[in-house]
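Shipment paperwork, digital attachment
Item: protein structure file
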Amino acid sequence: MNSISANLNIMIKASEKASKTLIRDFGEVEKLQVSVKGPSDFVSSADIKAEKIIINELIKAKKNYSIISEEGGENNQDPENVWIIDPIDGTTNFLHGIPHFAISIALKSKNEIVSGLIYDPIKDEMFYAEKNNGAFFNNQRIKVSKKKDINNCLFATGGREKKQVDLVTRKSGSAALDMAYVAAGRYDGYFQNNLNLWDIAAGIIIVKEAGGIVNEINLSKNDNIKIRASNTSINEKMLEKIKNF
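Attachment content:
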């Protein structure tokens, strides 16, 4: 196994602990209490429970770090070190019994994402990375795809499309897993608008450490974020194709 930092070890333990309740709740999804935050934006008791477990585990280890989380908002103790948490990225999938969602945890230090973890508890697939230490999938090193012909590439996207794009695309319903799949070479690129920081924070470093390119993102913003991620060979061609997206 590759050598990992104490912080990443904490993130792994927190995600594994939270995953146990998520798997249980997913098996009884029709019994969960669900409330609506906005159009197509739901929060379930499973989100809240998983987030509480993750935060408790992180605070136990680093009690002064700040936290930005989807359900709990912001807790600013140490502005230099911030945990960014999404307990279930892909809540709509989760609530419909579709087994495609993930726990996402990132650490922002001095306004830079320095470690990230995306864990799909149903498939038991864990993607993680730390700055200057590479990207990994279940302890195996991963790299973005090497495809150069954009016509042979597969892209992930999401949200409402204003205009059709001339690319082969899929919508999976989980931004975090879309980013992880780009890092692992399953998708060749990913683009989406109107995202929240917790959707993509972990994915940013995982894609970069896997050798991919991610557009410049203002990490002091929590919402309305555009993401453009791909392998290096097709990045310019992808950006040209989606310039009106």
